Amino acid sequence: MKAGYLGPLGTFSHQAALEVFSENEIHPYDTIFQVLMAVEENELDYGIVPIENSTEGTVNATVDALIFDLNLYIQKLVVLPIRQNLMVKKGADMSVLETVYSHPHALAQCRHYLYENYRNVPAISTQSTAAAAKLVSESEKNIAAVAPEVAAKVYGLELAAKGIQDSKINYTEFVVVSKNPTDRPIAGANRKTTICFSTVHEPGSLYKLLDILAIWDVNMSRIVSRPMRDHPREYVFYIDLEKADNWKDLQDALTMLERKTSFFKILGSYPVLDKR
Questions:
Q1: pLDDT tens track for 92-120
Q2: Fewest beta carbons within 10 Å, which of 36, 39, 202, 237?
Q3: 177 near 32, Cβ under 8 Å?
Q4: Could you tell me the CATH superfamily of domain 85-161?
Q5: What are the extents of the domains in the chain?
Q6: Residues sharing a CB contact under 8 Å with residue 132, sequence separation 6 or more, in sequence order
Q7: Are 83 and 150 a contacting pair, CB within 8 Å?
Q8: Would you tell me the crossing angle of helices 205-215 and 247-260 to the nearest 10 degrees?
Q9: pLDDT-based confidence at 240, cuts 50/70/90?
Q10: Model confidence at 202, in pLDDT bands (50, 70, 90)?
Q11: Can you tell me whether residue 84 is helix, strand or coil?
């Protein structure tokens, strides 16, 4: 089996991939679209890509590809906590730290910790958290990186401080996708069903569709609107649904939705692996 993820080594995407696959099964790719296309073209059996961050929001590149470009199905959702760590070469003297490196988002996520502990140490941006860890591992200088724990293992670094991010509830959701259909709606605890649809551009049209979900007691845990390609001011809605008790109700609700929409697609019914 072969699976792909958004590289490089030592990123949160790498860490998410290791929650589902073994190290020898996974391969890094440069972009989300490259991962997904590799699955579509049978180069990979599975792909794992980010779809939403709790603070940054939806990853549009993933959502748009699943809606418009590819015929892939979600097999699993992995919820990964975003825990940043300060890492150095083994034996580094933290009292004379020269520079801290990381991706701009990671530095921003840790600004309170860095200010309180290393306010006089320059913080410099890199292309990724993994690039920062690699830089530290190859440098002779007394420098540090902010990166996920997996980066320390990849580049042989020592964790000087763990969990230094300001928010302790930040997390990213990753979807595992393949060409294997999972479009039969399945209810149950810790499961989601993801659909997308478009409707006529008329007053109340979306409300009428969402009312169908309420009638069948289906919980909507996420709704995202994406512009319909080549149709200005028209939108496709990407929706996550939850139904713990009765799969028949869920199936009936989706059958009715499909009848009432101009475009309808089930992207998967799948389990959730929550690592928080």
A1: 988 899 999 999 989 999 999 999 999 99
A2: 202
A3: no
A4: Periplasmic binding protein-like II (3.40.190.10)
A5: 1-82+170-180, 85-161, 182-276
A6: 101, 102, 103, 106, 126, 145, 146, 147, 151
A7: no
A8: 160
A9: very high
A10: confident
A11: coil
| Cβ within 8 Å of residue 63, ≥6 positions away | 51, 224, 226, 238
Query: Which numeric CATH code is attached to 1-82+170-180?
Result: 3.40.190.10
DSSP codes joined into one string, 46-79: EEEEEEEETTTEE-HHHHHIIIII---EEEEEEE
CATH class of residue range 182-276: alpha beta
**In the predicted model, what is the mean pLDDT of residues 150-174?**
95
User: Is the per-residue pLDDT at 17 higher than 80?
Assistant: yes
What does pTM read for this prediction? Answer: 0.89
Partner residues linked to 143 by β-bridges: 99
Domains 1-82+170-180 and 85-161 share a fold: yes
Two tokens, residue 180? 């294997």
Q: Please, is 252 exposed, middle or buried when counting C-beta atoms within 10 Å of its C-beta (0-12, 13-18, 19+)?
A: middle
User: How many angstroms separate the Cα of 241 from the Cα of each of 33, 220, 221, 266, 273?
Assistant: 25, 5, 6, 11, 16
> CB neighbours (10 Å) of residue 55?
12
Decide if 133 contacts 151 (C-beta within 8 A).
yes
Q: Quick one: which H or E segment has residue 215? A: helix 205-215
Q: Which residues of 179-192 are buried (b: 16+ CB within 10 A; e: fewer)?
A: eeebeebbbeeebb
The string of pLDDT tens digits covering residues 205-224 is: 899 999 999 999 999 999 99
Distance CA 188, CA 33 (A): 31
